[in-house]
Amino acid sequence: MEERARSCLLRSRATLEQDIKASYLMDHMISDGVLTGVEEERVLSKPTRREQAAALLEVLLWKDNRAYISFYNALIRESYGDLASLLHNDLPQLSPEGEKSYSNGISPTVQAILSEGGVPQRPVVFVNRPALLNKVREKLYKLQNAVGWVTVFGMAGSGKSVLAAESVKDHTLIKECFPDGIHWLSVGQCERADLLVRLQSLCFRLEQSQVSEAPLRPPSSLEEAKERLRFLMLRRFPRALLILDDVWDSYTLRAFDIQCRVLLTTRNRSLTDSVSGRFSVPVESGLDEEKALEILALYVNGKLHNLPEQARSIVKECKGSPLVVSLIGALLREFPERWGYYLRQLQKKQFQRIRKSSSYDYEALDQAMDASLQVLKKEHRELYKDLSVLEKDVKVPAKVLSVLWGKELEDVEDVLQEFVNKSLLFRDCNQRPYLYYLHDLQLDFLTEQNRSQLAVSLHSKVIRQYQQAYSKGLPTSVDVECLYWYRFLPHHMARAGLSKELYSLMFSLDWVKNKAQIMGSAHLINDYVEYGAILDQENSEVRLQFQEFLSLNGHQLEQRPFPDVVQLALSQPHSSEVYKQALLQAKERANRGQLYLDWVNKSNQESLSRLVLHPHQNSVYYACFSRDGSKIASCGASKTLRVFKSTSGEKLQEILAHDDEVLCCAFSPDDRHIATCSSDRKVKVWNVEKGTLLRVFEDEHEEQINHCQFTNTNRRVLLATCSNDKITNTKPTSQNTMFGHMEPVNHCCFSPDDTYLATSSNDGTLKLFEVQSANEWKSIDINSFFPDNDDETGVMVKCSTWSADGARIFCAAKNTVFVSCHLYGGVCVCVFVGFQLWDFEANKRMAECSGHLSWVPCVQFSPKGSLLLSSSDDQTIRLWETERVHTSSAVALKRDFDVVFNQDDITVVAADSKNRLQVLEVPSGNILATLLGHTKTVHHCLFTEDGQTLITSSEDTTVRVWRWRTGECLVLKGHKEPVRKFHLVGFSSSSPALLSWSFDGTAKVWELSSGKKLQDLECHHGAVLSADISLDGQVFSTASADKTAKVWSCTSWEMVFLLKGHKACVRSCRFSWDGKRLATGDDNGEIRLWNMLNGSLLKICSRESKDSMDSFHGGWVTDLHFSPDNKVLVSTGGYIKWWSVERGEALQTFYTTGANLKRIHVSPDFKSFVTIDNIGILYILKQVEGGQL
């Protein structure tokens, strides 16, 4: 230190010791880097304030020029202007080396200007925020040629002061805009007297630079101080910038309204509304994660990658608040082992324990936030405290708060505007209406303050206010207000302890219907899981019934247009509360003429799958559990990756992952990352929580990548991939390429201890590689188990898996599972077709899991084995409980069947999987007869009116006429291709005839008694797929794969009408009972109604848009029937629909478990309907009584 400066300190020592508070000054000096933490502790160890001041001066005398200047600036900032004047004339000059060190790269001229103006130095730990910094400087440049105000606003602890100080550390900015200097004044919350002291200090500092003039007495009033400051800024410093830090109210601001250039930091954005020349810069409430972690690393003198896991949790908990990160960082510098402790304090909302004596105005976090709250009027303060009932990260519209506070919407918006202006609340202006939300720290602070009354009082208030506002029923609109109540009403009831209200709400089918339509089924399922403990106290069975209904029908509830929930619920078991409520509503609506169908024989069916999801709009190729079983990831032809909860199906993440089909996905051992591989030859690794891309591997494989899997343990994390280029790679920390297969590699998996990697290939082998060396350890030739295989493609080994103990390996090829009993020999073979569950210890099939409607390329057990996950080309994922699935004892019927209705007795005939005809009694299921004869698939079967004769047609090109009770059979031969179907023709009572049609494009008429062919017609150039005869027997129609339908005369056998317009194969046709209309259905799911007087088109019956199966009817329209009064039409496809013939609009939809229905049989009164789906389930549906069709 220069001798002149040292002498000044010694001369002024007694005065300084008497007046200064060392702890306040040392914070600034530590920030400037001229004082160490050890020296601070030594000073503070002294018992009295005066002894601490003496100790500080003693330390200072042994320092350099930088310490003297830092001490001087600290006096200015802490309003010791009179003491600073004692040191001003002896301020030392810095050497070039000192300038460079002190300025941290800032030019000496700039540093001198900032030091004289009292602009604070950078904090000890500083992280740049360039985007915000540039915004502030951009606004400051607007003050170059005119006076004005730049306001930097944000909530407490958002870093406004550091940003303001940093923005003026720019040589070009000062030179061009503020050549007369930068002057900093810390304002804060101050009374009139304190404000006068601050103005006196600022005037003194400005007058000190005028060395030629005699010192003036300090101004004695605010008015005098304001006028003196105006004179100084206008006459002597016209192009200076005045920085007012932390201004709270307009009264304080008016003292500085002196027509000068001002940079202002505040929590209240509306302060400058009354002045001209305004520019503002909002400061985000939090740093991004990487910058916040960088601050913590700097505080503890560590590397970013060496920070403990609690570091991320701390940043996440405080949402990156610069204040909280800095406070905790400073504490950790002194207590580096307390990461867990400070994280727990944040989580427990113990803000008063996060405290540090620093340059910030408040010693603890709770004091900083309470100061913001105290500036509100008492009434508004109470309203603000009500916001503690909100959940974190939830944005609410003003309408919700209008209900909560019981005020007019306009009044509520005014109050919210005040909160926003004071940075007590945030507003999302990207939506209309505006949405409002609290920062997590603000919410935590309010929650802590209201802890005693929050659980009951405030949440009860929410419920009371809601019930008053919606006394007439549930909200029905789809705006954001409605969304809030459907999302959080159960939460408020649970928190308020209103269990009866919660039961009444969640055990209501109306609530289920409305919430599912607005938010989807996953949110509802999540509610039943989250509040299960409360609901089970009332009735656990009912809770499970509602949860199961949503789990099994959730994929239907995602359909648009939205399905009829009452009709869906009528498919629940008769004992279910869901069914009982649905039946009551169905009867009530039936009285108003609506149509509902009851599935009367459903008691024989048991739902095996626990949850059905529809995550993608295309085939699902792969689905897997996370290692902890809490999440499921899926991927497929839609090129997307989706992650959702395994309990409810609630979507957690959706990522457009690749440019082509995504073939596989896999969780890392810690579940933080997920890998995907694709036909685009790339492997990508993603952050599960954020959905961000972490790494791309694109040069390792030359063809599509079929499978990927991480190691099972964290000991050494590797990712294995295999491809059509015949090689297998392991990555990412190191890379080994494993050669040996001669054809594409379909699958790879690590052994449980990660010692071996198993690979499955189209070359017919299963190979085991040592992971450490990448050498082939063992090869098993699966080809050798198929010595008689004549297939040109050979034996393709599709996949493999290990037993939990690693002692056995399983692989699949040609519908066969091979189990290696030992890795050193012995293979036992178990054969199965389809998706089945086996006990390999007992070599016994446990279950055949029916439910998927297409190929199932992937199944996987959960980590504990209690759940089974299957994904399918039918676009769904099903979750099964392995202990509950079983092999059904029911007969699996095919969809080609007929029904005889005889009063209350129903007789069904259908072919089984071996082309045997089974005649069954319903609902007992007793087999009355088994008929053998057809050699290929049976396409159609029909009883005559007396029920004694049965007629069938088949893939074997024949029609057979059976006396089914005796087994006698007449065979009709003549078609060259499979006979699709037939109809009975009543030309005369003495000679009944039969009309048959075939894929060969012909229709033939047979005499039923003798089998003689009466007519042979060439009808279409394509296959004839359907035909029908009018009730009067005058005309018949044919529908064909050539996309046309034709109407023929039964007397002349000539064509009457050619019906064009369908854009796909016309698969079904049916005359109305009065013969005036013909209905035709095609493979797009479209139904057309034609006028039979002139052949013109009357109506097109279809959905507004195609469904998830890219159809208007869930698939082909396979059968059609008119009601006796010709007002209603029933159709089958992927499901069953009833239509208004007059309007062409759907009246009702019944969703079957399976799909691709071929026929539906209708009772004469049009009140009973029978069909079979493609997985063999029989449906007997009866109209709910109460209304007329």
TrEMBL record:
Organism: Pygocentrus nattereri
Keywords: Apoptosis, Repeat, WD repeat
Domain CARD: 1-90
GO cellular component, one term: apoptosome
WD repeat copies, ranges: 655-696, 738-779, 849-890, 931-972, 985-1016, 1017-1049, 1059-1100
Gene: APAF1
SMART domains in alphabetical order: WD40
Highest rank taxon of the organism: Eukaryota
Source species taxonomy: Eukaryota, Metazoa, Chordata, Craniata, Vertebrata
Any one Pfam family match given in the protein's UniProt record, by short name: WHD_APAF1
PANTHER family to which the protein is assigned, alphabetical: APOPTOTIC PROTEASE-ACTIVATING FACTOR 1
Listed SUPFAM superfamilies: Calcium-dependent phosphotriesterase, DEATH domain, P-loop containing nucleoside triphosphate hydrolases, Quinoprotein alcohol dehydrogenase-like
Molecular function, one GO term: ADP binding
Name the record gives this protein: CARD domain-containing protein
GO BP term (any one): apoptotic signaling pathway
